[in-house]
Sequence to fold (550 residues):
Amino acid sequence: MVDTKVDLCGITIDNPVIPASGTFGYGYEFAELYDINCLGTFSFKGTTLEPRFGNETPRIAECPAGMLNSVGLQNPGVDDVIREELPTLERVFHKPVMANVSGFSTDEYAEVIRRLDRSRMADMIGWYEVNISCPNVHGGGMSFGTDPKMAASVVKAVRWTTDKPIIIKLSPNVTDITEIAIACETEGADAVSLINTLMGMRFDLRTRKPILANVTGGLSGPAVFPVALRMVYQTAKAVRIPVIGMGGVSSAEDVLEMMMAGAAAVEVGAANLVDPYASQKIVRDLPETMKKFGIEAFPVV
Amino acid sequence: MKQGIYTIRENRQLTPTTWRMKLEGDVSGIRAPGQFINIKLDGHFLRRPISICDADRDGITIIYKVLGHGTEEMTHLAEGKNLDVLTGLGNGYDLDDAGERPLLIGGGVGIPPLYLAARCMKSRPTVILGFNNSDEIYYVDEFEKLGARVVVATADGSCGVRGFVTDAFRELSEAGETFTHFYTCGPEPMLRAVYDRVYIKGGISGQMSFEERMGCGFGACMGCSMKTANGNKRVCKDGPVFRTEELLW
Fold:
């Protein structure tokens, strides 16, 4: 028997498979398809202080082996998440959930976490994943994640708002991702997760204009997997805190590659959008795949 | 929503740009006309969302227009090939509102979902079908076989009423015809014209099916959102059919 359990910042999860924020809503819609308690956990839709519609449409464009999105953090706002989304999730998910939060100022990040942490739904939350890497919003998001000082300022602002682990979600749209990761670690982040999407664009040959109304968007899917893997590998060598690997993961084999690169756990993103059962299949295939490659437990040594 | 493997039983060209495909497989996920399916094609990352033209015990009929690489490749798929398909997506049309004299308005590739709507209706519908020219006309006979009254409009005047579907509607109105409710699907400029002419000026409420670039097609990615009077909605999951009263036009 192989053991798929991993430790994530002091919380043991049954397996390292975590649907990524923005590809799994607030979970309950996938619970209509399968028992989502098979997952290690999942990271819920990026939540901001105020409700957001996001960018104008079109905000999806297909690419070879992947897709661009420029959703721009559409979400109902933290108060509605506490009032509506989390109580709905509570009925179908009985494990600690990863709360993904976003903001347009360091104060906003802190306030979103404070509200979640002091709400009656706080017990559901295992970790906060702080998104400083959204490429689709202006004046926030990625602008915090592309400069070590700015990244550090976010960690500083949120560090003492909660006793729960803080995971900082990093952008690949930088020269040296390890520099940002080290700045987060130094300021007291409990973990980092990477990579968010890579900035890209596409043109519509008929209209001669960019397909996305926002002009640019974030690339995800199998196309980014090797890039993500390389960045996870570099970051895991550069910091002592856990690194959650993500970017184009679509199979149990991809999960194992990420773990071999030094990931403590693995998020699955775009794959959920093509096959709504993708994460369940990865969880199901993982033990057999571990056995096939002679892996009895994590970490892979 | 249901995921399943479907076998192509027919893949036939109807007009220079429009094809019909019949897929054999489980139809238990389909609950209403106006819903769509999402097809996985080899070599393409995202699925292709296509509205359901008809569904019966044997399977699903879709009609698709060749617009890009994906739909072009679909024309080469042979009978007997299996496809991974998500079915029963979206909320579809509510036929309870049809009343005694329902009006169906379809433009181009927006026509197919109206076929199943017409077939499921208790009252005899009037169907306005809009095309660019007579070469593009399809499914007039099929609608007539259902007992529907069909009025064709072509933009170049090569068949039926010269002009758009709204011109055909104007002619019917001027002849004293009245309608209880309307159902429509087509390109957004047509939807806007129908909204303006039939709902605002004509005072008839209706249900309109929208098209948008989708990521997942089942409500997870927030790619295809639109603002409505009832808040932000996902075209794929909360739509693709919206009521005229919900729209912020």
